């Protein structure tokens, strides 16, 4: 079974988490400060491995997340969006990370759910923890530790973590360090971190694919372009939330459900001021490749129709929407087990889509990532200094250039 067929029956199970300010603290508000969009795990017949154990039992999972804006209280969101069975969390804790699997013990807080120290997530559901007092600075790292006491199928995760997570036997959620732990670079179950802030904040959700998810960036260094943008904007009290999914598409399910299917859950439920869209290269590149060898090629008008749906749905919620042009991809993935991702006809579609993004005026603003990253002497390809080496994803320098090109006027309009 391919990933698309696997995900379609499960898409309807994804539910949104919404937050509201406590009535007793009207001067404060909850804001999303970090996110990882849930995906369904896939089978061994898919071209890429999950990198995640299929089952966990009597194990502690510790995940590190760098927030964008800070606050004095914190809570987390968990997701069993694609699970066919309940997921039981025996204990959950949050603390300030001090690097690797280490935490500051003085900051360690037990998380509860409806006043209880554990929680069971029914199939298809998210779950929000109770708030705890914890001063988290802007761009601070928190460590979330989950103990899974029962035999648990891992069916909901985020694949492209770009950050080490730690897996150890037994309930070690309170340990200051998980010595001798195994490491993963995926994110099972953890989907969000929220802070309560008394400061006026604005937020941007970036809806994207592997380029937004940070593929080929240096792990554990926060070199994804949304991370670099968050680093620049945090001092302005602007939250940046990454809703990228590697393999993501506008129209079709792939390594996650389509943008059209997950727009409410991953974007609108977070109540952002702005959504930034960098999506479409997989809609173009996947058909006819090793990912989807039998799918019919996409046309520019079909992809544009998908963008128009995102624009209409954002505007119906009063959300500004910024579009980005699609980056070059000639010769993509030459050394990967994925073949036929690029051809000249596919690039003609990309060029037509980019012309529409630039010239139609339908997005509220446009950032021309194609112009920034392409080689002026060979515009179908990345500038060599920005190429990770796979001719599809930027390297760290390319991600830095992309983040630097996004300014507040594009995100929020002129003052």
From TrEMBL:
SGNH hydrolase-type esterase domain: residues covered: 206-401
One of the record's GO molecular function terms: hydrolase activity, acting on ester bonds
Keyword Signal: yes
Taxonomic superkingdom: Bacteria
UniProt keyword terms in alphabetical order: Signal
Gene3D superfamilies: SGNH hydrolase (3.40.50.1110)
Signal peptide start and end residues: 1-25
Keyword set includes Signal: yes
Name of the protein described by the UniProt record: Secreted protein
């Amino acid at each position: 079974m391919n990933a698309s067929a696997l995900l379609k029956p499960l898409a309807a199970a994804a539910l949104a988490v919404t937050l509201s300010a406590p009535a007793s603290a009207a001067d404060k508000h909850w804001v999303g400060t970090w996110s990882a969009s849930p995906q369904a795990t896939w089978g061994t017949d898919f071209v890429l491995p999950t990198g995640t154990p299929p089952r966990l039992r009597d194990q502690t999972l510790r995940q590190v997340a760098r927030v964008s804006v800070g606050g004095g209280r914190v809570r987390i969101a968990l997701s069993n969006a694609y699970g066919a069975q309940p997921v039981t969390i025996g204990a959950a804790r949050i603390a300030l990370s001090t690097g690797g699997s280490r935490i500051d013990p003085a900051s360690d807080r037990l998380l509860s759910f409806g006043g209880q120290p554990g929680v069971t997530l029914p199939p298809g559901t998210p779950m929000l923890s109770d708030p705890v007092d914890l001063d988290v600075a802007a761009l601070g790292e928190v460590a979330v530790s989950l103990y899974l006491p029962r035999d648990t199928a891992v069916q909901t995760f985020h694949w492209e973590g770009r950050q080490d997570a730690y897996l150890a036997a037994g309930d070690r959620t309170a340990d200051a360090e998980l010595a001798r732990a195994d490491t993963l670079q995926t994110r099972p179950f953890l989907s969000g971190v929220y802070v309560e802030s008394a400061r006026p904040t604005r937020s941007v959700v970036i809806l994207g694919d592997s380029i937004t998810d940070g593929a080929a960036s240096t792990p554990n260094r926060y070199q994804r372009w949304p991370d670099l943008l968050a680093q620049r904007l945090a001092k302005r009290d602007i939250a940046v939330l990454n809703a990228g999914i590697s393999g993501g598409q506008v129209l079709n399910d792939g390594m996650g459900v389509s943008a059209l299917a997950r727009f409410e859950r991953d974007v609108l439920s977070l109540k952002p001021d702005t959504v930034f869209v960098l999506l479409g290269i997989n809609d173009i590149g996947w058909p006819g490749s090793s990912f989807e060898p039998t799918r019919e090629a996409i046309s520019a008008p079909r992809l544009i129709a998908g963008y128009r749906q995102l624009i209409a749905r954002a505007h119906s919620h009063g959300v500004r929407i910024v579009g980005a042009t699609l980056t070059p991809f000639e010769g993509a993935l030459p050394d990967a087990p994925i073949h036929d991702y690029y051809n000249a006809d596919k690039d003609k579609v990309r060029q037509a889509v980019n012309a529409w993004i630039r010239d139609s005026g339908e997005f509220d603003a446009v950032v021309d990532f194609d112009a920034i990253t392409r080689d002026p002497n060979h515009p179908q390809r990345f500038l060599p200094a920005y190429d990770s080496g796979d001719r599809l994803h930027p390297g760290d320098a390319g991600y830095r250039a992309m983040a630097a090109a996004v300014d507040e006027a594009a995100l929020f309009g002129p003052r």
